[in-house]
Specification:
4 strands; mainly alpha; two-stranded antiparallel ribbon; 20 helices; globular
């Protein structure tokens, strides 16, 4: 493909680009602002120590970035945080009350998280062995794109629920962020900070409404030691923990694949616009899953929550055109500091829920739109009944199950592994894979792409 002429006014950072130090810290903080609400919320829901989860997410992110640079010669620009996909399974082991540390049950859940890491690493090595082409047959763009759309749209209620804490503040935050992202393009470094600037506008707008509570800062110690714990491998329930948690990788492997394909698409687009060489990150899907697994191994060994790379941070990068790996390393370092510096974490925690909701409406929506963009870029033929059927099934089961049934379909099979029902997004992904395999085995007539001739 012929490179486009370099745009003089366009500012953006490709994965191997290193911004100046101050810019890198600011861009890193914007990443932390984006990942913080979900990472902390998952920890509070499942009874894990928030400081530990923040610290370990930073360690996992930095480790994955450094390894990708060493192995592939280029950064895979992803942030590794807590995954909502594992909440139900983890709660089945910890039985935690909100914001209450679950004690020894955390160590039991860590066994399952370690197993999840091993599953991802194993699948990643298999893909590196058999090649990306084999994976694309099992997970074609219509599945990865649809799963990405499901993930974004399934978070819609969460965004609106947060925004409902104060609709006025949320909508002003949303409007400011959208305007910054559109009208600050080509305006220098400030054009890379729409989420941070939108959050600042929302924060100051919240003050006269009494939404800022500084108690989180005053009650936190300057320094604290996170609760690092080791997995309870000797617990007689250890294998049960493995079966309960590790199987959720069925959901996160397609999710992680979709995230990498999305970010690869936008990185290469920016490279074209800057007149630079394409990165082709989509060819590193096996390595990406290995890094996902290493992230979960780190989480499981030290007391973090099972996770995956974050679609929210992908959205941030697409909006800001900042795909810098060093900026993500800065974000990981800031997350580690927040785990140890209580007042820093407390300050971020003063951000009102409504502000987070306003930002989330934009970020979660972009996740869904990236799935659509992926299918468009890969020229998925939605005039073909096969492709249409796969996408339709994934969307309805994933979105309907997640929003209508609190994330778990009321299908009572494999209750030992899924006591609350089948996880909706995982089930949607598996359904798409099964339909695709049927069409691969039993060939059907090819349908020409009508859009190609229009």
């Amino acid at each position: 493909m012929t490179s486009l002429p370099k745009e003089k006014k366009l500012i953006g950072y490709l994965p191997n680009d290193r911004p100046p130090l101050i810019q890198m810290i600011i861009l890193g903080f914007q990443h932390v602002l984006t990942m913080f609400p979900a990472t902390v919320l998952v920890a509070l829901l499942v009874g894990f120590d928030v400081g530990t989860v923040l610290t370990v997410s930073g360690v996992a992110t930095i480790t994955a970035l450094i390894l990708s640079r060493l192995v592939a010669g280029k950064f895979i620009p992803l942030y590794y945080g807590s995954s909502f996909s594992y909440i139900a399974a983890t709660l089945a082991l910890t039985h935690a009350e909100f914001a209450t540390y679950a004690g020894d049950s955390v160590r039991l859940a860590q066994v399952g998280i370690v197993a999840t890491g091993l599953v991802n690493v194993t699948v990643g090595f298999i893909i590196r062995l058999v090649g990306k082409g084999s994976l694309d047959k099992i997970l074609p763009p219509v599945i990865t794109g649809s799963v990405a759309t499901v993930i974004g749209i399934s978070l819609a209620y969460s965004a609106l629920d947060m925004a409902s804490a104060h609709w006025g503040v949320a909508l002003i935050t949303l409007l400011a962020t959208v305007l910054f992202s559109v009208y600050l393009q080509g305006k220098g470094f400030v054009g890379l900070l729409p989420i941070l600037l939108g959050g600042i506008v929302g924060y100051f707008i919240s003050i006269p409404f009494g939404l800022i509570d500084m108690a989180a800062v005053t009650t936190e110690a300057w320094l604290r030691v996170p609760r690092f714990t080791l997995p309870a491998f000797g617990d007689p329930r250890a294998w049960s923990a493995v079966g309960t948690i590790a199987v959720i990788a069925i959901a996160t492997i397609p999710e992680s694949t979709a995230h990498l394909y999305q970010i690869s698409l936008y990185v290469d687009q920016l490279a074209d616009r800057l007149g630079q060489k394409r990165y082709h990150l989509n060819e590193l899907i096996g390595l990406n899953l290995i890094l996902d697994g290493i992230g979960d191994l780190i989480n499981g060994l030290f007391g973090g929550v099972a996770g995956t790379n974050y679609g929210e941070n992908n959205s941030l990068m697409v909006i800001t055109r900042n795909y810098s790996g060093p900026a993500l390393i800065a974000a990981g370092a800031i997350a580690i500091l927040m785990g140890f510096v209580g007042k820093l974490a407390g300050l971020v925690n003063t951000i009102p829920v409504a502000v987070t909701g306003g930002l989330a409406i934009y970020l979660f929506g972009v996740i869904g739109m990236q799935g659509v963009a992926l299918m468009l870029a890969e020229k998925v033929n939605l005039y073909d009944p096969k492709q249409l059927a796969i996408g339709a099934a994934v969307l309805i089961v994933g979105i309907g199950g997640h929003i209508g049934y609190d994330g778990n379909l009321p299908i009572r099979i494999l209750t030992g592994m899924f006591p609350d029902g089948l996880p909706a997004i995982a089930t949607a992904a598996v359904l798409g894979i099964v339909l695709n395999l049927i069409f691969l085995v039993f060939k059907s007539p090819e349908v020409p792409d009508s859009s190609a001739s229009s």
